[in-house]
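ok, trying the design again with the full structure, not the truncated one.
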């Protein structure tokens, strides 16, 4: 698409990415109207310095005026949190108005090479690791996307970068047109966000496959060779590939041999670092390390630099984060485990017995796959709206009790655990019934554990 040929944009959703793209467009001289279903969000944006003093003043559409703004616009920019079934989006589609997202807009103004990282789990960790790798290599880079800073903000700030490392959600991929990554990373594809995809796993997987959008001879596809869906997508891709996971004879890839992370590049294997030198807990974090090494490889990053970054890396908050040890019991916050697959990997990563805190807002997946991993679970503490569905799936396979708050859940978990056990918050659900975010949920867990 030709961004320069557009004159007027309507931005729907005034979260971080919506405000960022509105600013970018207005700063480049385009006419921009913005709208949000929440009047408080409109009021906050209208009073912010972020959207003031631009090349063109931004128009703030209300519920009464937004249809008029839509009629005048030749492009609608939808924030990731806004459903593509939103009435205004449906109206735009019916009118033949082009619908894109913040990432697509920003791409057209981005001169840096892009590493795009998607997958059901591990995106933030891999992107954070890649940031540390490029910092250790003294490269000019920025980290952003779905992790903190929208690409639009990076461009507006005129950062002098050669590489943009971006976490990209399926919702963002749904609204790209020309966006293309030089290195397209697919970590894994398991059931998640099915409520957004009409309970269709195939539709969700197809969305994830769009990380290869517009791929050409310069694109590298980095993928998890042990994930069935990733492997299927890779089999249908004829371009350049780098695997991570199990070693594949004759292919470029990153894998574990004994206690060592090994990279095979252009046919030659080399040791990167000992697994024991990488501190984050869990099988999934080891996979994330392999993915980050693989994604950095096309940029010519030396193995010694990779080793230095991996040794120094510390896990992000709420991702298998050890909160404290009290009475010989470890309390681990993995609030970011918002789907069943992430919870299974977290449980598998714990040595010994554990007490597991589950629950929140159901995302349309099935909880039955947890059953075979409950052998070392002394008790499950259920919280939130999904408690009935989880109990129905796990009933008869483990001891379960309910709690009305995080404080009560942690108290009951501590009473159930004995010295040497782990209390693990890995909810397998989103947080929005009881908390504003997974981070707020993790903070509540930490606070409750801190009072024991």
């Amino acid at each position: 698409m030709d961004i320069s040929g557009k004159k007027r944009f309507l931005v729907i959703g005034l979260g971080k990415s919506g405000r960022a793209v509105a600013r970018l467009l207005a700063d480049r001289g385009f006419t921009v109207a913005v709208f949000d279903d929440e009047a408080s969000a409109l009021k906050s944006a209208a009073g912010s310095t972020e959207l003031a003093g631009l090349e063109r003043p931004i128009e703030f559409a209300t519920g009464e005026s937004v249809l008029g703004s839509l009629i005048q616009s030749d492009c609608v920019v939808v924030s990731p949190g806004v459903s593509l079934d939103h009435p205004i989006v449906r109206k735009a589609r019916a009118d033949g108005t082009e619908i894109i997202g913040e990432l697509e807009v920003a791409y057209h103004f981005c001169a840096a090479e892009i590493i795009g990282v998607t997958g059901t789990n591990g995106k933030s960790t891999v992107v954070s690791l890649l940031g540390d790798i490029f910092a250790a290599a003294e490269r000019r880079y920025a980290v952003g996307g779905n992790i903190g800073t929208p690409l639009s903000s990076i461009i507006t700030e005129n950062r002098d970068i050669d590489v943009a490392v971006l976490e990209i959600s399926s919702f963002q991929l749904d609204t790209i047109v020309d966006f293309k990554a030089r290195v397209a990373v697919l970590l894994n594809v398991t059931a998640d966000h099915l409520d957004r995809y009409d309970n269709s796993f195939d539709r969700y997987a197809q969305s994830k496959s769009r990380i290869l959008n517009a791929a050409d001879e310069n694109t590298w596809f980095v993928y998890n060779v042990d994930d069935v869906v990733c492997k299927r997508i890779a089999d249908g891709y004829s371009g350049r590939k780098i695997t991570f996971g199990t070693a594949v004879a004759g292919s470029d890839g990153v894998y574990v041999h004994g206690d060592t992370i090994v990279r095979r590049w252009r046919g030659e294997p080399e040791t990167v670092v000992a697994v024991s030198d990488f501190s984050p807990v869990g099988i999934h974090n080891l996979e994330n390390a392999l993915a980050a090494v693989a994604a950095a490889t096309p940029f010519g990053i030396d193995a010694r630099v990779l080793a230095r970054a991996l040794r120094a890396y510390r896990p992000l908050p709420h991702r298998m984060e050890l909160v404290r040890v009290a009475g010989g019991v470890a309390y681990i916050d993995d609030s970011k485990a918002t789907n069943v697959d992430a919870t299974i990997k977290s449980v598998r990563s714990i040595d010994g017995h554990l007490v597991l805190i589950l629950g929140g807002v159901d995302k349309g997946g099935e909880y039955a796959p947890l059953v075979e991993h409950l052998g070392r679970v002394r008790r499950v503490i259920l919280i939130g709206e999904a408690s009935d569905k989880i109990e129905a799936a796990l009933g008869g396979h483990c001891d379960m009790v309910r709690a009305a708050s995080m404080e009560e859940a942690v108290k009951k978990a501590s009473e159930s655990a004995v010295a040497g056990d782990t209390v693990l918050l890995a909810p397998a659900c989103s947080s929005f019934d009881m908390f504003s975010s997974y981070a707020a949920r993790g903070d509540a867990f930490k606070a409750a554990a801190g009072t024991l």
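Keeping the full-length input from now on. The CA atoms of residues 119 and 187 lie 5 Å apart.
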